[in-house]
Amino acid sequence: MADDVRQNYDVAAALADAEARFAEANPKSGAAYAAACAGLPGGNTRTVLFYPPFPLMLSRGDDCRLTDLDGHEYVDFQVEQTAGIYGHSEPKILNAIRDALDEGITLGGPTVREARLADLMQARFPAVELARFTNSGTEANLLALATARAVTGREKLIGFRGSYHGSVVSFGPYGSMLNVPFPWNFCRYNDVEGARAEIRRLGDDLAGVIVEPMTGSGGCIAATPEFVAMLREETERVGALLLFDEVMTSRLSPGGLHGLWNVKPDLVSFGKYLGGGLTFGAFGGARRIMERFDPRRPDALSHAGTFNNNVLTLSAAIAGLEQVFTVEAAERLNADGDALRKRLGDVLRSHEIAGQVTGIGSMMMVHLTDEELSSPEDSAKVSATLRGLLHLALIERGFYVARRNMIVLSMPMGAAEFDGLVDAFDDAIRHYKDVLPRA
Ligand code: PMP
Q1: What does the pLDDT read at residue 6?
Q2: How does strand 356-360 pair with strand 267-271?
Q3: Is 155 helix (H, G, I), strand (E, B) or coil?
Q4: Closest-lying ligand 1 atom to the alpha carbon of residue 81
Q5: Per-residue pLDDT averaged across 123-149, rounded?
Q6: Could you tell me if the CB of 216 is within 6 A of ligand 1?
Q7: In the chain, pLDDT over 70 holds for what percent of residues?
């Protein structure tokens, strides 16, 4: 048997063993999952949360800890796909939600809260001259893309293969048949000359280019400075809009990645943690574009949404930005992430295992390969089996991480959680050393 075939076989066998132990250790989750299959296809309403044999059923969260139905406790490094930055029980957030509840919900008119949140976002994010709120990151991206088409009067859009911008704007392996039928043209992420040529080719048919400055679920792979500079220069040149999807990455500095890198996209989309842990999305950008949403204008673009200004989200979001995820806190969290990423990389090197930990600040991903990773498509260089094995190995050691091996920080974490994760990672790598790829 060839070495790589033998290795794949061994990894698959190790994963099958890990799944059997998992099923045995989690009978109540297993039973709850079986019951869920009666009303939900595959027992599931968020594809990303499924993994075999069944996902852990969570019963509560405290600070950065989670408890499952079988009573196991985990340190939560999945952090609700980056949205759980405040942890599960930050008192300032909980109080803000309670205060809003006490004043009544679904009021059906503007309140002072939406203006306050817009002010806070304007102060934080340099590209946001005016903002609008939505209910999810998907919706924010759909509106930003539709806005680009409406204000330019053009049709075509460029996206990057392997990127994820929402459940119906997904260029990776998940669900692309459900995508909204925009006229997409695709390029490879970080391919400076390929994307430059495509932008020029589409020229004055091109409405906009959507890009994550660092791919989140697509591998935590950062755009290079040359790639970002080219996108800014070439979109401007042909009169198309540059859209930054900062739904995940806005947490990577007090002013998002565009603030950190001093780039000014025309539109930026947001979501996740900015809603304080509740349902949220937002898009904003240059005044000349966003003022088209001014309902007093005769040519106003209409943007409705029953819950765009729901008081619970707004209240939690304001408390989060004003009192918890302050400028100093954002800097500290991302410095902690940089240190943790380095320590995890050191573990791989100490065991002479092929691998790297990509990312910036508080978002990172482990890839058990030494091959170069420059585009989200490259995440597939690590097999799903290998990713599954590391995932279950960390869960077995009390650390809840995303199936794709993404690791995210939240604010309640400190040295004990970081040291614990490094020790668990070291133990998992040592345990499976014989089946992992060698450096
Ligand atoms: N853009 C990016 C970069 C995301 O990671 C996500 C969610 N994972 C979205 C958009 C969609 O956000 P939501 O799930 O709130 O619709």
Answers
A1: 65
A2: unpaired
A3: coil
A4: 8
A5: 98
A6: yes
A7: 98
pLDDT band at residue 177 using 50, 70 and 90 as cut-offs: confident
Ligand 1 nearest atom to the CA of residue 166, by list position: 11
68 Cβ below 6 A of ligand 1 = no
CATH for 3-85+328-435?
Answer: 3.90.1150.10
Pairing of strands 267-271, 241-245: parallel
Prediction pTM value = 0.97
Ligand 1 centre from 294 Cα, in Å?
Answer: 26
Fold exhibited by the domain 91-324 = Aspartate Aminotransferase; domain 2 (3.40.640)
Ligand 1 binding pocket includes 26 (Cβ within 6 Å): no
Spatial neighbors of 6 by CB under 8 A, at least 6 apart, are: none
C-alpha of residue 12 to centroid of ligand 1, in Å: 30
- pLDDT above 60: residue 175: no
Mean pLDDT throughout 255-271? 98
The helix/strand/coil state of 372 is: coil
C-alpha to C-alpha distance for 322 and 14, rounded to whole angstroms: 47
Q: Give the CA dihedral 247, 152, 230, 379, nearest 10 degrees.
A: 40
280 close to ligand 1 (CB < 6 Angstrom): no
Sorting pLDDT into bands at 50, 70 and 90, what band is 302? very high
Structure tokens at 194: 């390929």
Q: Which atom, in ligand 1's list, is nearest to the CA of 136?
A: 15
Q: Where are the domains of the chain?
A: 3-85+328-435, 91-324
